[in-house]
Amino acid sequence: MLGIALMVLAAMLNAIASVLQRKAARAEPERKAFSLTMFSDLLRRPVWLLGIGVMLAGFITHAISISVSEIALVQPLLVAELPLTLLLASWVFGLRMRARDWVAIGLASIGLAALLACLSPHGGNPRSAPISWWLLGACGCAAGIALLVLIGYRGRHEHRAALLGVATGAAFGLNSSLIAGVGAAVAAGTNLFAAGQTYGIIVLGPVSFFLLQNALQAGNLVASQPGFTLTNPAVSVVFGLAVFGEQGRTGWWLLGSVGGAVMIGAATVLLSRSPLLDPDARHDTGHDLGNTAGSRGSS
Questions:
Q1: Which of 108, 109, 195, 241 could crosslink 185 through cysteines, CB 3.0-4.6 Å?
Q2: Positive or negative, the Cα torsion across 40, 46, 51, 52?
Q3: Rounded to two decimals, what is the model's pTM?
Q4: Nearest-CA neighbor of 8 among 116, 141, 146, 168?
């Protein structure tokens, strides 16, 4: 229960951090994408610095959660980040949630409950996973991230944001798996710097952060947030089941797990189309969110 509570808290902190960082990054012109100049500008924005602080708190909470629980059990709870982002956006920008938004949140909640109850992952140990499985999983994921970044770099605005959002989610999912490996090693008495996964985190952490900022700068949260929301737990769950040896229920339970995953996916599609995630557009509520949050430098 501790791991579940901590992961829900981490999802809340991540939602707050996404809104704060997006509000700061959206003012950066497109020509500064993938450059250190963009970060020097962001360092002078208090909202961005606050978002980074919240994100670090979420990262620590997240790390503790996956260290005390099976990763395939707690990681799916990260999908709560998207509806929480919507609720936060509605409060920040003074907009009311629509009926479709509430339906989607309810659908996501039911789907998440069904997935966790039917999958019910257990067993497995990151420490006992063969090094060949670790390398295969990490290299395969890294190759996919690199491909998404390459295609996204050539894209524009929302197309770039969507691809970088998926790449960022995959990077954070892989990072979570590495953290689980470090946690298992330290719990078994291994020195922190004797665990190979520690060095993977040292490299992947800054890369994930770099991708996140570029995804937030490239387009609005409608484009980038679904990738963060779904890819992160998906990569971690696959790692837990395929690499760590965690086991889920099979037989008829598998149908419930698939059904829950489909409901989560459908709810994510509905939530990602909510105007609450698009602070650059004018909506029929009479509020001009573009004026509220400031216009982008390239607009």
A1: 195
A2: positive
A3: 0.70
A4: 116
Longest dimension (CA), the chain: 59
Write the DSSP assignment of 37-59 as a string of letters. Answer: HHHHHHTT-HHHHHHHHHHHHHH
Q: Could you read off the pLDDT of 279-293 as tens digits, one per residue?
A: 555 444 444 333 333
Q: Which of 143, 129, 135, 139 is nearest to 181 (CA)?
A: 129
**DSSP secondary-structure letter at 26?**
T
The phi, psi pair for 239, rounded to 5°, reads: -60, -45
Domain boundaries, the chain: 2-280
**Strand, helix or coil at 29?**
coil
pLDDT digits (tens, 9 = 90+) for 29-59: 555 555 566 667 777 778 888 888 998 898 8
pLDDT per position as a tens digit, 195-229: 888 999 999 988 988 888 787 776 666 667 777 77
Q: Which residues contact 208 (CB under 8 A, 6 or more apart)?
A: 168, 171, 172, 175
